[in-house]
Amino acid sequence: MDRPTDPVVRLASYGSFTTSVPRACPLCAKRARHARSVTATSVATTHATQMTEESDAPTTADAPTFMSFITLSTFPSLAANLSKLNLRNQGFVQVPAEVWACEQLTQLDIGGNPVTALEGIQALGKLRIFFATGCKLGPVLPPDGPLAQLRSLTMLSIADNGLRVLDGAALPASLEWLIAKQNQLAEVRNAHRLCRVRKLGLAHNQLNTEMVRAL
To answer: Which of 38, 67, 100, 124 is 20 to 30 A from 87, alpha carbon to alpha carbon?
Structure first.
């Protein structure tokens, strides 16, 4: 998969994000300069941040500019244009409300955070790729819940979430790529909802052959 060309901004406290605003935009450049001066003490590294679940999963580009998480609230116009946001391993138990306000997001990674619910994610109508690996969404996802309402979502990882049931009614029918490995899955429901899935990862679960064939 080609590497994204959008400029990426790393949040010193909460991962990294990519904005779809062109780098040449004078207003954004001014804001970025201001943010760098405000958060100079929090700058730690300029290494790239990856959003990776499998070898063919998308990755973010290098992160040349740094901000603290408060910037997302301070500059609403910047948040309004974010397209990719990486919040892996930040330790929060609830996704910050500011994230659900980023309505232009197409890629989101909240993996490694002990999140138990996704209420609010339905506001991200353009989201296509969502990684929630290693969260605490189990033992079941709610049927017709927030995830099921993401009609643009095509790629999803819910691996390692303590899930016991894989319920198609809890997932969007638009899915083409689903990774649900390393759970405790022992039951499949509403498999017809997953008829578009072309890549399916179910390793390290408790499903028998008949259950897998139903998918």
So the answer is: 38
